[in-house]
């Protein structure tokens, strides 16, 4: 009896992509449990592309003339990418389903095409007619945009290799599959193979490629974690479906800062950039004194933004008091409440506490500590905070108020938005070079509350 050639199988970790010869409960690469997936491995894996020619030069002899990149003209988009998109760069864009990733990329493709940059848009999720309908809604005509509807990695690579494209968009990497693997699209082996081939193509052709990645329920890009290590830039498109704003945030960028954000507003005609975030997030801020409402200044990258923090404290009627945080970490809220009770003597253990950042933002900056504690105390004592006063400061476990970074930028933004007083850590007072508004330095949380709430 003649039997066919035995098919080789291997086990891949769904978190980090580490290959294992046999199944085991724990991945030796990342330590996760029950995450190995059996997949077939091709017996002879032929490379789709020839190996790029090796280059060797002394660092002092390398010219930067070829390092000039592309600008889309969308300032919020370019800022997150480091100011420009360098040729040969691979960008991974992640985001929740329906958040607007495809809309953002189609508008970006149109922006690049208007700069006379040839663009390729590969879609594995939509037909050409569906792309045309969305483009018509966004009033995109796409004279320099070539749209390809394909799920084949080999076809996509051949089209990009043979075409004279400068920027390419792949929506999404989970829908692209290689004929060398029998596993369905989206599996570890398929995603890793598709990404590696496209990254090699980008470097050899000096082609900038955007890869769209789906996210899991944990908010991470689906597929092997190694995908984020392979690309040059990783950006997330964030937002709340209940709010109109969308935020583009970089979490990895080999050619720029990872602290920059781009802010967009979702409208029926598409995404429009928000050039004045402070005005956007303070649009509903009342000029009348209100309890539990405080304005603070944050810095995302080089950009200062003013946001409103709201708190509500009520008597707990059912057993354990509730701790509900919107836009900040729940554990951070619990820590701040413990500081407020221990250092100031406020009865937080018998009250329900609800804290929210107006506008649906999610932040983790230490400078939010003092404003959050002030908003909670304001609601508990039923005393209002002057609406023209801005608060910033980090609070330590012993109740001290610590200094924050970029205080001059926060102060300038507060002055521009019409605030007259700024409560800040005493350590930052001497660092202010241009005192445009009244400054009040505080050293601990109790003295700060005494000054603010009387």
Number of strands: 23
How far apart, in Å, are the first and last alpha carbons? 94 Å
Task: Label the CATH architecture of the largest domain.
Answer: 3-Layer(aba) Sandwich
Radius of gyration: 26 Å
Q: According to CATH, what is the topology of the largest domain?
A: Rossmann fold
CATH class of the largest domain: Alpha Beta
Q: Can you tell me the overall shape? A: globular
> What count of helical segments does DSSP give?
12
Instruction: Specify the biggest β-sheet.
Output: 9 strands, mixed
Question: Number of folding domains?
Answer: 3
The strands making up the biggest β-sheet line up spatially as 6-5-7-8-4-9-10-11-12
* Share in β-strands: 25-35%
Give the CATH superfamily of the largest domain: P-loop containing nucleotide triphosphate hydrolases
Global mean pLDDT? 86
Enumerate the spans where pLDDT stays under 50 for 5 or more consecutive residues.
45-51
Structure notes:
This protein has 454 residues and is an alpha/beta fold. It folds into 3 domains: 8-41; 70-275, P-loop containing nucleotide triphosphate hydrolases (Rossmann fold); 280-453, Ribosomal Protein S5, domain 2. It has 12 helices and 23 strands. It has helices spanning 75-80, 101-113, 128-137, 153-162, 188-205, 226-230, 277-281, 330-344, 369-381, 407-416, 426-429, 445-453; strands at 8-13, 19-20, 36-41, 90-95, 119-123, 145-149, 167-171, 208-214, 233-239, 245-253, 261-267, 270-273, 290-291, 293-300, 303-315, 323-326, 351-357, 384-385, 389-391, 394-395, 401-402, 421-425, 438-442. The strands form 5 sheets. The chain has a 9-stranded mixed beta sheet. Helix 4 (153-162) runs parallel beside helix 5 (188-205) and helix 9 crosses helix 12. Mean pLDDT is 86; it is low at 45-51.
């Amino acid at each position: 009896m003649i039997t066919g050639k035995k098919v080789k199988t291997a086990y891949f970790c769904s978190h980090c992509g580490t290959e294992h010869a046999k199944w085991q409960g724990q991945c030796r690469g990342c330590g996760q449990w029950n995450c190995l997936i059996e997949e077939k491995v091709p017996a002879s894996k032929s490379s789709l592309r020839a190996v790029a020619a090796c280059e060797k030069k002394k660092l002092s002899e390398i010219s930067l003339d070829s390092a000039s990149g592309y600008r889309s003209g969308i300032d919020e988009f370019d800022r997150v990418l480091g100011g420009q998109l360098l040729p040969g760069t691979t960008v991974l864009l992640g985001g929740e389903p329906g958040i607007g990733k495809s809309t953002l990329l189609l508008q970006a493709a149109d922006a690049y095409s208007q700069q006379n940059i040839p663009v390729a848009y590969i879609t594995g999720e939509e037909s050409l007619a569906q792309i045309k309908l969305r483009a018509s809604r966004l009033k995109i005509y796409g004279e320099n945009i070539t749209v390809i509807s394909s799920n084949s990695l080999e076809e996509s690579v051949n089209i990009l290799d043979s075409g004279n494209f400068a920027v390419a968009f792949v929506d999404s990497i989970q829908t692209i599959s290689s004929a060398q693997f029998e596993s369905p699209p989206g599996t570890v082996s398929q995603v890793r193979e598709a990404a590696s081939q496209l990254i090699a193509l980008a470097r050899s052709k000096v082609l900038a490629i955007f890869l769209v990645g789906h996210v899991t329920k944990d908010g991470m890009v689906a597929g092997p974690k190694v995908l984020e290590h392979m690309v040059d830039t990783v950006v997330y498109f964030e937002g709340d479906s209940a709010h109109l704003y969308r935020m583009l945030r970089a979490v990895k960028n080999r050619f720029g800062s990872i602290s920059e954000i781009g802010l967009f507003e979702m409208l029926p005609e598409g995404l429009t950039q928000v050039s004045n975030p402070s005005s956007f997030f303070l649009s509903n801020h009342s000029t009348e004194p209100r309890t539990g409402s405080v304005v603070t200044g944050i810095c995302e990258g080089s950009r200062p933004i003013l946001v409103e923090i709201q708190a509500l404290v009520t008597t707990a009627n059912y057993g354990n008091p509730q701790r509900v945080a919107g836009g900040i970490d729940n554990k951070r809220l619990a820590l701040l409440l413990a500081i407020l009770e221990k250092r100031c003597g406020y009865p937080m253990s018998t009250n329900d506490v609800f804290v929210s950042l107006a506008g649906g933002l999610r932040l983790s900056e230490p400078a939010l500590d003092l404003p959050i504690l002030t908003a909670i105390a304001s609601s508990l004592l039923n005393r209002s905070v002057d609406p023209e006063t801005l608060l910033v400061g980090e609070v330590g476990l012993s109740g001290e108020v610590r200094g924050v970074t970029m205080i001059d930028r926060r102060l300038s933004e507060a002055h521009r938005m019409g605030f007259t007083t700024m409560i800040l850590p005493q350590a930052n007072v001497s660092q202010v070079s241009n005192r445009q508004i009244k400054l009040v330095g505080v050293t601990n949380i109790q003295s700060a509350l005494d000054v603010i709430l009387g």
